[in-house]
Each structure stands twice: as structure tokens, then as C-alpha cells.
Specification:
Length: about 350
């Protein structure tokens, strides 16, 4: 219980502006400050709003995430700071030894391109002089009043547009950075942090790039979700491209027009697949849990077309596309993906 109290206190202080002296003094003007902050956090993440540190709330608090505080669902950073010029420069100050310099540079370049496609912004890398956005890998206390906490906690943070440290993005040097689905994909984390560098706050849309918690999603042909496109265009206007970009929107489970690509059972649960997402419905739980397919099975494609459970082997088979048997189109069979299920 004491450990959970520390987790709750640290989380609410870091991400929900709970004053450090308020945890013991729980009442302010007749209001229980801790309960109200917990409710704010639960509303943001779509949890059951109880004001209590229950299991699903604690599980959410333990997930790897961005170090920037959450803003109660606002699309833009409070005060709506923005760059007054659209030709922005960036400079990579140092590198992580876990990737080659070329791999780091590619991840950073591709991350900026996501935002340039959706807006009139242009990003240019410089090797000398002062850049608008400085990018660096640091560990623990690194002089900006936002120390990192070692592996698997806060992955990175960035600062809103402005002079000096404004716009800069810092990455925890103690994380394991990759360009794959393993550990933490630098491209995905960098793209998220650069959203902050441009003036976006966190989104409560779990499918948005600006959602605070890390979740791997397939990076080949990755496009900016619609929630993020709407956010960046609200600040800087439409894209300079002749055809305005559109991105995927997160399905809403209660949408009466929602149809699923595939449905199967697994160990008493029901799994619903749609595009790059799947939902888990447990008969004993009220909340339906939504996840990226790639979070559980990084090698699987999106758009699963059929699924079934193999009870005897504790497996599910997922199907997409068709393949031919013996190169004969007279014997077309679905391409199957046999996958174990991990909690």
C-alpha cells in the first residue's frame, strides 16, 4: 500500500500539477485534492472515474510515457504558443550508442516529415550554430528541472515553442532505442516529442500520436492520425501540399455504425478487430480494453479479415489476404498467422 501511495503521489505531481505539499493535506476549500486529481487523470485516459487508485489506474500509471504533463484533454498547449516562422531548423547535439548515427538521423528526419506533410512547416537540419529545435540524449538530472528516471519510465520530453530551451527535445539515454518493434522505437517517440516542440499538448485519443503513453504501431508507411493533423493545422493552418492529407481516426466502440473486421473468442474473452486496433471484452469486467494490434503482435498486419480460437493449443489464428497453393489460382487459401496470446 505504501508503494502504491508513492506511485500515485509521484504521478499526480509530475503530470497533473498536484502540489508536493498537498498529498498529506488532502482538503482544500472543502475539496479532496487527491480525489479530484485522480478523477482528472481517470477521465483523461477513459478509465472508470472513481477517484480511487484502483488496479486499472495503477496499471496506467506504470506505463512508459512522455514526461510532459497532461493537459486535461486540451488539443493545444495552454497559452497556445507557436513558432512565428514556418522554416524551422533542428540540430542533433549527440547520439545514442544503440543506433548508428545514420539510423538516428533517419528517425529524426522521418519524424519531422510527418508534421511537415500535414502543415506548412519546413524543417532543415543544421550542424553548427543555434537551431530552433535542439535534440539530445541525456540521463537523470540534466539541468532543465525535468530529470529522467532511468529505464522504462519517462522516455523523453520536449518544450513548447520559444526562445532558449523552447522547442528542444530530450531523450532518456538509459532507454533502449531501436528502429524496430523492440523496446522503444526512436522514430515514434521523436515524432511525438516534436509535436510538443511545435505547440501541441497531449491528446486523450488513444490512437493519436500525441497520446502520452508509448505503444508501438507499425512504422512502415506510417501516417499521422487525423487527431494530430487537426491539432497541428489548428495552430499553423493547412498543409502547403495541393492535396490536403487525411489520416486514420480512432474507432469509437459505442458508434452504432461501427463494423468489425473479425471477431473471435479467447479464454472466455471476446476479441474484436478493426483496422489497426482490437478490443478485449471480458465477461467479468465493465470496461472494454482497446489496444493496437502491433502492441501484442508486432509482426501482424492491420486489417485482419478473419479469426478463430484453437482451444486445444491455446492459440488464435488470424487471417488476411489470400495465397495460392502450389501456385495454382484454383486452390486459393487464406494467409494465416498463428499467434500465441500473451497477457
Amino acid at each position: 500500500k505504501e508503494k502504491n501511495t508513492k506511485i500515485v503521489q509521484d504521478y499526480l505531481e509530475k503530470f497533473y500539477q498536484l502540489p508536493s505539499n498537498q498529498y498529506q493535506s488532502t482538503r482544500k476549500n472543502g475539496t479532496n485534492v487527491i480525489v479530484e486529481k485522480l478523477k482528472e487523470m481517470q477521465r483523461f485516459f477513459g478509465l472508470n472515474v472513481t477517484g480511487k487508485p484502483n488496479e486499472e489506474t495503477l496499471d496506467m500509471m506504470k506505463k512508459p510515457r512522455c514526461g510532459v504533463p497532461d493537459s486535461g484533454g486540451f488539443m493545444l498547449t495552454p497559452g497556445n504558443p507557436k513558432w512565428e516562422h514556418t522554416n524551422l531548423t533542428y540540430r542533433i547535439r549527440n547520439y545514442t550508442p544503440q543506433l548508428s548515427e545514420a539510423e538516428v538521423e533517419r528517425a529524426i528526419k522521418d519524424a519531422f516529415e510527418l508534421w511537415s506533410v500535414a502543415s506548412p512547416l519546413i524543417f532543415t537540419r543544421i550542424s553548427q550554430g543555434e537551431a530552433d529545435i535542439n535534440i539530445a540524449f541525456y540521463q537523470r538530472d540534466h539541468g532543465d528541472n525535468s530529470p529522467f528516471d532511468g529505464p522504462n519510465g519517462i522516455l523523453a520530453h520536449a518544450f513548447q515553442p520559444g526562445q532558449g530551451i523552447g522547442g528542444d527535445a530530450h531523450f532518456d539515454a538509459e532507454e533502449t532505442w531501436t528502429d524496430t518493434s523492440a523496446n522503444y522505437n526512436l522514430f515514434l517517440v521523436a515524432a511525438h516529442e516534436f509535436g510538443h516542440s511545435l505547440g501541441l499538448a497531449h491528446s486523450s485519443d488513444p490512437g493519436a500520436l500525441m497520446y502520452p503513453n508509448y505503444a508501438f504501431r507499425e512504422t512502415s508507411n506510417y501516417s499521422l492520425p487525423q487527431d494530430d493533423i487537426d491539432g497541428i493545422q489548428a495552430i499553423y493552418g493547412l498543409s502547403s501540399n495541393p492535396i490536403q492529407p487525411t489520416g486514420p481516426s480512432t474507432p469509437k466502440p459505442c458508434d452504432p455504425s461501427l463494423t468489425f473486421d473479425a471477431i473471435t473468442t479467447l479464454r472466455g474473452e471476446i476479441l474484436f478487430f478493426k483496422d489497426r486496433y482490437f478490443w478485449r471484452r471480458h465477461p467479468q469486467l465493465q470496461r472494454v480494453e482497446m489496444n493496437f494490434i502491433s502492441l501484442f503482435w508486432p509482426s501482424l498486419p492491420t486489417g485482419i479479415q478473419a479469426a478463430y480460437e484453437d482451444f486445444d493449443r491455446d492459440l488464435i489464428f488470424l487471417f488476411k489476404d489470400m495465397i495460392t497453393k502450389d501456385n495454382s489460382w484454383n486452390q486459393v487459401i487464406p494467409k494465416a498467422y498463428q499467434v500465441p496470446f500473451q497477457e
